[in-house]
Design brief:
19 helices, 594 residues, Rossmann fold, 2 domains, 11-stranded mixed sheet, 5-stranded parallel sheet, alpha/beta
């Protein structure tokens, strides 16, 4: 018996030993895998963890003020040149992949109520100003290529995220001579703007002299939305030190130092907490150049709220166009907080804006030397360009044209009905699958088809192929959808097309107009604003009809944005009253006949 018991004990110990070894193997494999993932930083990890924020993390104030510390101001420039300003309303949305845009809480100030409750007046996926004329022309194979010239080329673009590109490599033999030339020569900068030659005439920018002292403050912090630093001369960008240094000529008394985060959400501390802070300063001492560039630099950040289609455009693509298009591709981008998946998604846009590989600022160890540098992007209100403030008076008409050219879209403008026999007007319905869905989509489609529309239904989300979606949008005459990021695709619509925004219940007409109504009209589109009634909201299934949420929805805004978002955005769907909405589609038909 003892022998049997001993044998059982031995077997039991062996089994326990085997289990222990298996457990240790599994734990070891997991740790090795985790270490590999963290070190390699694959795109999937960047996509989820690269600093992008959810709406739950967003700050809880609609108007955020940027205060400039008095002590810092004294060391930078006189206090009367600095301004405090309020950030503008941010758009609310989520898409199928759970990509939620940031929107700050809705407060109770008179200004907030005015924005949120304003009714749509007649008038973001006018006449054209000087810049519009610049971009309209064709001239030559260089510059803004037409559809045929770009069709084959756009599929060949590759964008390394860490660039070894330089105009000149610094060596022991030429470094001292090059630095001396930067300070003493009087040669004009070679990248003078020649848009007038490549785009059918227009404004030509005057080049600066290399040795002329930059007599303006290095940075402008007066814009309520974005800080921008611009300088010409001997400029050294040292990524390891997160610094941009303007080398002062001998005898200069300038002593400036600025701290800035080059992402256009000024005052949004939570968003900017994920952005690398840069120091822009004047200096007489700096590290030696290791890379020389004969083109200007534009330094800006990704991360932030990118990943939501609306913020892709309003925070990066529109400001980047406004800042960089004047250089006609002769510009070097240095990107802090790089998101590789994002630059790949919009590779064709980068190809149009710069001829050079992107530099991942955070991964770079060089001292780059430039004669002209811009830190930060020119940005204004949501999803818009202010032509009175933008370089060369660029406008959203120019941006709309740029996007059509970039994606080689065939239709520049809608064609009046009847000019092409037997052609039906095309209506695109942007559908949603998580929130703000059309509960009677089939009924809406049937009604529109009976009215003579050819109906197309597409869902826009973060995983959508931009080029494919752009072609679909460009092929239609009317695009409609419930307020959300999918409406950002209006940037691909042909001129004079019609955008119809369906506004959910909740007294949010003002913010809906700011996000898409004003930008659409500024792009040269025709805009229609349809606010649903109580009977068209799914909220009637959650609350009795005599509830205060229907009698006075604005009063609920005082509960903070979290309540507003969950109630009027995340938990509301739409059942359109087809008899009522039919009038909007009839008006659209009338406009298409004009």
């Amino acid at each position: 018996m003892k022998a049997v018991e001993r044998a059982k004990l031995v077997r039991s110990l062996r089994q326990e030993s085997q289990r222990l070894r298996l457990l240790l193997f599994v734990i070891g494999f997991f740790l090795v895998t985790l270490t590999f993932v963290v070190i390699s930083k694959p795109d999937a990890l960047l996509f989820n963890l690269n600093g992008r924020l959810s709406v739950d993390q967003a700050p809880r104030s609609l108007l955020i003020r940027e205060w400039v510390d008095a002590d810092d101001a004294a060391s930078r420039r006189s206090a009367d040149t600095l301004a405090t300003a309020a950030n503008d309303p941010k758009m609310v949305d989520d898409d199928d992949a759970g990509e939620k845009a940031n929107t700050n809480a809705i407060g109770t100030s008179e200004e907030e109520k005015r924005v949120l409750t304003s009714e749509p007046e007649q008038g973001k996926w006018e006449e054209e100003a000087t810049a519009s004329e610049l971009l309209a022309g064709g001239g030559g194979e260089e510059g803004w290529k037409g559809e045929e010239g770009h069709q084959d080329h756009q599929h060949k673009v590759t964008l390394p995220t860490i660039s070894n590109y330089t105009i000149h490599d610094a060596t022991e033999d030429n470094d001292n001579g090059k630095q001396e030339a930067d300070e003493k020569t009087d040669t004009e900068i070679k990248y003078a703007t020649d848009i007038d030659q490549t785009n059918g005439g227009g404004i030509s920018q005057q080049p600066a002299k290399d040795n002329v002292e930059w007599d303006k403050p290095l940075c402008d912090f007066s814009n309520f939305r974005a800080n921008v630093c611009e300088m010409r001369g001997n400029i050294r960008i040292h990524a390891n030190a997160s610094s941009v240094m303007y080398m002062e000529p001998a005898g200069s008394k300038r002593d400036e130092q600025w701290k800035t985060k080059p992402y256009p959400r000024k005052g949004d501390d939570l968003c900017l907490s994920h952005i690398t802070e840069l120091t822009v300063k004047s200096s007489k001492v700096a590290p030696e150049c290791t890379k020389y560039h004969d083109v200007p630099a534009v330094v800006f950040a990704l991360t932030g709220y990118t990943g939501n289609l609306f913020h892709d455009f309003t925070d990066v693509l529109v400001p980047l166009f406004t800042t960089a298009i004047e250089f006609n591709g002769e510009v070097q981008f240095l990107i802090t907080d790089m998101a590789i998946w994002w630059t790949r998604k919009y590779a064709v846009v980068f190809e149009k804006l710069t001829k050079y590989p992107l530099i991942d600022f955070n991964m770079d160890d060089q001292v780059h030397c430039f004669k002209h540098a811009i830190v930060g992007l020119h940005a204004y209100m949501e999803f818009t360009i202010d032509p009175l403030k933008a370089p060369h008076n660029y406008s959203m008409v120019d941006f709309n044209r740029f996007m059509r050219m970039t994606y080689s879209l065939p239709r520049d403008a809608v064609t009046a009905l009847g000019e092409i026999p037997k052609t039906k007007p095309r209506l695109l319905i942007i559908s949603r699958q998580r929130t703000r869905m059309f509960l009677n989509l089939n009924e809406i489609m049937t009604m529109a088809e009976e009215m003579g529309y050819e109906v197309v239904v597409e869902e826009a989300n973060v995983n959508s192929n931009v080029a494919h979606f752009a072609k679909v949008v460009n092929s239609v005459d009317v695009m409609m959808g419930v307020h959300g990021a999918g409406l950002t695709n209006c940037v691909f619509l042909p001129h004079n097309a019609i955008l119809i925004q369906i506004v959910p219940w909740g007294a949010i007409d003002g913010i809906c107009r700011v996000d898409f109504g004003n930008p659409a009209e500024q792009m040269g589109l025709r805009y229609k604003h349809y606010s649903i009634g109580v009977h068209e909201s799914s909220l009637t299934e959650q609350y009795p009809l005599d509830h205060e949420i229907f009698k006075n929805p604005l009063s609920f805004h005082k509960n903070g944005f979290e309540f507003v978002r969950q109630t009027f955005m995340d938990k509301q769907n739409v059942r359109l009253d087809c008899n009522r909405f039919r009038l909007v589609l009839l008006e659209a038909l009338d406009q298409l006949n004009q």
